Amino acid sequence: MVRSLFPDSPAPVREWAGLANHSPIKAYLAQAHHSLQVMSNPDFNGRMPGDGSIHYEWSSFDAIRFLAELAPEYEFGLKEEIDPRDVRKLNAIDLCANAGGQALGIEAAGYYMHGLVDRDEDTIRTLQSNRRRWNAVKADIAAPLIPADLDAWRGTNKRAANLDLVSGSFPISPFAYHAERDGELFTSALRIIEKLNPKGFFFETDLAFNAHRNDVFRQDLITSFWNLGYETKKWTLSANEFGVPQDRTRMYFVGIKRGLGSLPPPTRSTVATVGPAIWTAAFPDLSPHGVYEVKKELKLLIRKADAVEKPQQQSEQQIAYDGWAKAWASRYGAELAPDMDKHRVQPRGMSAHLWRNAGFDPQRRDLPRLGDRLVMNYGKRLPLLPLSVPLLQRLQVMPDDWRFEGDEQSKLQQVCSVRPPEVSLAIAREIHRAITSQAVDLDHPAAWKIKGTNGKWFWSLLSEPPTAQGIPAGRWKNVRGIDKYVSMPLTLYQIAPVFFELCPLASSDPDF
């Protein structure tokens, strides 16, 4: 790039001020070229050029960060925390992927998902219909492995040859209920890790993994991974502390190659409850005043536009519906749902009792709607909410546009088996930091954002289009004249991947 822009030699320092005004890209390239030359000198003393220039005040760090497609700094020196969208992309494979919840979190933490392995046909269809670029493979990881299997899991992308992370969500029953650990998958995972040789891994299982009866098995597992070059840790994490409105606590067996960074357990301390998570999907028939009353009951942020006074004339049906929604929010809004992986749909006994305590009726299939007889005469017996896919999806913190394939029973089983993406995001981010030393700004709006299906990905791309160098424009605007560069047209280089992504949509929909 330097040779093409500066055929003779890069512009001298005294020209950079003018260069930055009409061609900021050239200025950054010239600065980075000069800085890297200084750093490569055997006599380099650690003092970076730029900040003391008499011609033009500039930063070597910004110029080099520009080459790395990272956002510029507004002060000299590197910040400890970076924009979560600017992290270096790593490579991952997810075992026992279920319906993609764990993979969504890992993807949001800064990884390319090269393979998602599961043995359920409907689950594979769910993964393929929501993420066409994902390599969803139907396979049983407990079966004997051959090299061709691993090649299929990696996919065709050359990046996958250098794996950074292998993850998995293993059944809880071998440790929670079976003394002999029938059906445990850690032995299979050990064999897979030995073959794939990633830099790190994490596997979710039941708390009973750490029980005394499993001491010998667990120690043998730790020793085996140590012999493969991994330091391992056991983390006990509550999903509720990561924004998941469930009483769900799991054990995570985590490993990192020795010699890489330290690996402390992730923290967030953002407690969520049922009401704020589901109210917009649970009460679709609220009046504007009803919305205001429910939000007030749930202690949500209320804008001026939400403060709607109760109308003088309102139908009896609407009054009853708004009153029921407010009463439900008051009684159950601060509750936690039970652990959905243990207390699944069609629960009985204690499981059904736990769901009712959280405001759900395991026998109900449809939402109470405006004009329903039970809503009109609810009294002290509040109609409860159904265990439907859209509401369970909210309780798992899955994107609303994530579609589950199969019949209704299969969809319900899939959504209950989902691993909440925000927990895997936090774990994958810690492993990412240990590998790359890049610490993410957790207060950034994008730090905990989980992307939905391909359509949302496409429109979000258009709302903040990349520049000719692949750098999101919004992060470079108004920085030393870079806004002039942002207005350049997109090249085929950026547009082509979008069409590759949407080709299946175009071929299946003639009106597309």
Summarize the structure.
The protein has 512 residues and is of the alpha/beta class. Helix content is 39%, strand content 11%.
What does this structure look like?
By secondary structure, this protein is α/β, with parallel strands linked by helices. Residues 74-79, 455-489 and 504-512 have low confidence and may be disordered. The protein has a seven-stranded mixed beta sheet, sandwiched between helices. Strand 3 (111-118), helix 6 (121-130) and strand 4 (136-138) form a beta-alpha-beta unit. The chain has 21 helices and 13 strands. Helix 11 packs antiparallel against helix 16 (389-395).
Alpha-carbon distance between the two ends: 38 Å
Q: Share of helix among residues? A: 25-40%
Q: CATH H level of the largest domain: which superfamily?
A: Vaccinia Virus protein VP39
Number of helices: 21
| CATH C-level name of the largest domain | Alpha Beta
Q: What is CATH's topology name of the largest domain?
A: Rossmann fold
β-strand number:
13
What's the overall average pLDDT, rounded? 82
Question: Which structural class is indicated by helix and strand composition?
Answer: alpha/beta
The largest beta-sheet arranges its strands as 4-3-2-5-6-9-7
- Indicate the low-confidence ranges by residue numbers: 74-79, 455-489, 504-512
The rough form would be described as: globular
Strand content: 5-15%
Biggest sheet statistics: 7 strands, mixed
Please give the CATH architecture of the largest domain: 3-Layer(aba) Sandwich
What's the domain count?
3
Q: Work out the oligomeric state of the chains in this entry.
A: single chain
